[in-house]
Predict the 3D structure of the following.
Amino acid sequence: MSQVTSLEAEKIWRTIPKATQDSILKSVWCSHCRTSTTMIDYSMEMIKSSLILTGKCQSCDQVVRRVID
Ligand SMILES: [Zn+2]
């Protein structure tokens, strides 16, 4: 992780099992590639009660987001 991450978001992320984290990061929709991709260089933040992961598509470097309720 190379970006700023909020502590609250990180705390919630840590409660998610590693295998689930991996499957979340590997099934991110990229609107540029029009397929699911792997998110890299991600950061996380809380918006309302949702954990938001923001990172880059491994294939095309475009910004991708994933919301976890
Ligand atoms: Zn992409």
